[in-house]
Specification:
The chain is of the alpha/beta class and 463 residues long. 45% of the residues lie in helices and 14% in strands. The protein has two domains: 229 residues, Glucose-6-phosphate isomerase like protein, domain 1 (Rossmann fold, 3-Layer(aba) Sandwich), CATH 3.40.50.10490; 174 residues, Glucose-6-phosphate isomerase like protein, domain 1 (Rossmann fold, 3-Layer(aba) Sandwich). Helix 9 crosses helix 14 and helix 15 packs across helix 16. The protein starts with a strand and ends in an 8-residue tail after the last helix. Bound molecules: 5-phosphoarabinonic acid. 5-phosphoarabinonic acid binds next to loops.
Length: 463
């Protein structure tokens, strides 16, 4: 199979100048810390970073395949109830591998997929009015098994399913993905006897896309999860090399750190030149933001670390954001997701007489235009001294997407070493969860509620 490549030519000082681009000497200086960072990360594979081993977790994929086969043809809709790392990968895989229009007319009797990763009552309420419970399977995903958003969704839909299908009948419409032992959701599985899958130990939410969290819904809608895992495994093998020039995860991590720490670029833009790959930008935004955005270093010193991820889609955002990117502040670097061979070509028809101004388009392929726009943007960025790298996907398929996912997961883990932060916790997210529990009056959070109310007791200022 072909490899996903990282082209960093346009991030070099030779391309964008020494103030904005990295030099060979800078890269040489990063070689030893990068190798040490990789050793540090890989040494934890069997201990607490078990997501590194997911590409080799054949047995669980077998069980997912068996479950998917057992319900094949049974449901018209699969609905994911989850949030953050328990939803973003599902959407990214679905859009990339089944395409943005799968739900219009799913092929081969496959179900449609909906990822309801919000508790906006307008969203959930509208879905409740429109869906047919008898033809819907809910995959409830929560590693902790207690997240308020996901639990409230579960309670709402459980109630509705029981009301329409009965206590016994509703059970085959629910499959749970959660911790093997901890959390309310595991208790629910045991009490109700729902089908279930496990989020393994050592697999944090944002590193869980290659576990049952991301794989189950993917398998249900027809994604080739074995090929996805094979792509991830191939990237894992390539990324075992401690030599910076051979290892794309090391290069990407080093560039991210250097761009922020040495070239004053706190913003990292993922610019997906592929409609199918657009949601990979959302997935990566969470991975980067939650992993590296930290108040304290591993030694406990305040550091306020972290790049700000931004997502853009080509060519759409050329007509929205590129003006800022090319002429605004020098505070960003860019990762272009590029597809070398799209699945389809669409030819622009010959131009009718009288419209000679459009002759340059007549008879040309949209793919040609798309590539010219992408390459034109890269050139415009380079000429304006804006550094970029390109992740080159041979084509959009499960193997290449699996490579990308593993590449970015490992790169972010290595970044944690460069930034000297714990890339695997999320105290800021937990703080928000605790505040929400307090405001909802959850038992045990009374003190927190009082503190929030006291802090917010000033007169509101509104205009
Ligand atoms: O990456 C993370 O850990 C978070 O974004 C979680 O995925 C998110 O908060 C949801 O948590 P849970 O899966 O426990 O419901």
């Amino acid at each position: 199979m072909e490899s996903v490549q990282l082209d960093y030519t346009c991030a070099l000082a030779d391309a964008v100048g020494p103030e904005h681009g990295i030099t060979e000497a800078d890269l040489d200086a990063l070689a030893a810390p990068s190798a040490a960072a990789l050793r540090g990360v890989l040494a934890r594979r069997e201990r607490d970073l078990c997501w590194l081993g997911l590409p080799d977790a054949h047995e669980v994929r077998g069980r997912i395949g068996e479950y998917a086969a057992s319900v094949a043809g049974r449901f018209q809709n699969v609905v994911v109830l989850g949030i953050g790392g328990s939803a973003l990968g599902n959407t990214a895989l679905f859009t990339a591998l089944q395409g943005p229009f799968h739900n219009l007319c799913p092929p081969d009797g496959l179900p449609r997929l909906f990822v309801l990763d919000n508790v906006d009552p307008d969203l959930i309420g509208e879905w409740m009015e429109r869906f047919d419970p008898s033809r819907t399977l809910f995959n409830v995903i929560s590693k902790s098994g207690g997240t308020a958003e996901t639990m409230s969704q579960f309670l709402i839909f459980r109630d509705l399913l029981v009301e329409r299908l009965g206590e016994e009948g509703h059970r085959e419409h629910v499959v749970i993905t959660t911790d093997a032992e901890k959390g309310v959701l595991r208790e629910v599985v045991e009490r109700e006897g729902y089908a279930s899958f496990v989020v393994p130990e050592g697999v944090g939410g944002r590193f869980s896309v290659l576990s049952p969290v991301g794989l189950l819904s993917s398998a249900l809608v027809g994604v080739d999860i074995e090929s996805l895992a094979a792509g991830a495994a191939a990237m894992a093998r390539r990324c075992e090399s401690e030599r910076l020039g051979e290892n794309p995860a090391l290069v990407y991590a080093a560039l991210q750190w250097w761009m922020q720490a040495r070239a004053n670029k706190p913003i990292s833009v993922t610019f997906a030149y592929s409609h199918r790959l657009r949601n990979l930008g959302d997935w990566y935004a969470q991975l980067l933001a939650e992993s590296i955005g930290k108040r304290v270093s591993r030694g406990g010193q305040e550091c306020f670390a972290g790049p700000t991820p931004v997502r853009a889609v080509g060519v759409t955002d050329q007509h929205s954001q590129v003006q800022l990117y090319v002429e605004g502040p020098h505070d960003k670097w860019f990762t272009l997701l590029c597809v070398e061979r799209p699945h389809r070509e669409v030819t622009i028809p010959a131009v009718p007489a009288g419209l000679e101004a459009l002759d340059y388009l007549g008879g040309r392929g949209l793919g040609e235009l798309f590539a010219a726009e992408r390459d034109g943007t890269r050139v415009a960025l380079r000429e304006a001294s804006r550094p970029s790298v390109s992740v080159l996907f041979p084509t959009v398929d499960a193997h290449s997407v699996g490579q990308y996912l593993f590449l970015m997961e490992l790169a972010v883990a290595v970044m944690g070493e460069h930034y000297d932060v714990d890339a695997f916790d999320q105290p800021g997210v937990e703080a928000g969860k605790v505040a929400a529990y307090a405001l909802m009056g959850r038992e045990g959070y009374e003190e927190r509620r009082a503190a929030i109310e006291a802090a917010g007791s000033g007169a509101p200022r509104r205009v």
